[in-house]
Amino acid sequence: MTGAALTDADRRWLRAAVDLSRRCPPSVTAFSVGAIVVAADGAMLAEGYSRRDDPHDHAEEAALRDLAPDDPRLAGATLYSSLEPCSTRASRPRPCTRLILDTAIPRVVFAWREPTLFVDCEGAERLRAAGRTVVEAPELAHLVRAVNAHLPT
Questions:
Q1: What φ, ψ does residue 82 adopt, rounded to 5°?
Q2: Distance between CA atoms of 143 and 129, rounded to whole angstroms?
Q3: Spatial separation of the C-alpha atoms in residues 128 and 117, rounded to whole Å
Q4: Is 83:115 a contact under the CB 8 Å cutoff?
């Protein structure tokens, strides 16, 4: 774990994000990812998974689409993603890191750093450089790898 302390609630929400990622239609060109936005009081605000509404959807993008970017609850929220938020995209003009930075979400927790299979991701670094708290939970990465066993990672 790096960045900040991982709580029991973080572990529960990350496991829920991994469970959500199992809903993703399989793809040989993209990871299966789940994302959940949780308010400071522990209420789930939104959830999303890769390819939820469109073949190009990323999990964070799908979850954030269900919220207004200026929703006041986001100022104390945490975004949980099974995989590190992307910093580069071929299918859309704005990567998930930028979508997160366009909100007031101060904290991001993820389980697995994105392997360089498709892109060289710098999501965690960009979020930290912008002043957001980033918590990595590599002890849960094996769960995300299992969901993505269809990819040569």
A1: -65, -30
A2: 28
A3: 23
A4: no
Active-site residue among 47, 60, 61, 114?
60
Is 139 catalytic? The answer is: no
The whole model's pTM is what? Answer: 0.92
- CA of residue 42 relative to chain centroid, distance: 17
Question: Taking residues 91-117, what's their average pLDDT?
Answer: 87
Query: What pLDDT, on the 0 to 100 scale, is given for residue 117?
Result: 60
pLDDT tens per residue across span 81-101: 999 998 887 777 789 999 999
State the Cα–Cα distance between residues 143 and 101, nearest whole angstrom: 27
Question: Going from the N-terminus, what domains does the chain have, and what CATH number goes with each?
Answer: 11-147 (3.40.140.10)
